[in-house]
Amino acid sequence: MFNIYRMLYPRPKYVWAQIQILHETEKAVLVYNGMKIWIPKSQIYVIRLKKNNFEIYVRECTIG
Questions:
Q1: pTM of the full structure
Q2: What is the number of domains present in the chain?
Q3: In terms of C-beta density within 10 A (0-12 exposed, 13-18 middle, 19 or more buried), how is residue 23 classed?
Q4: Fewer C-beta neighbours within 10 Å, C or N terminus of the chain?
């Protein structure tokens, strides 16, 4: 169904990103996926282990 609101304000896109966890604090996780980046835990929706690799489900813009 056509919705003007959704056309003007699209929902954020989420992706599974394969990472390596380097360090963890109470509020954030330092990960490596080609570059080191701190990701706040509030922005990580799901963490899963798939074939001995960690994957996180985050907004597309969170991981470069």
A1: 0.76
A2: 1
A3: exposed
A4: N
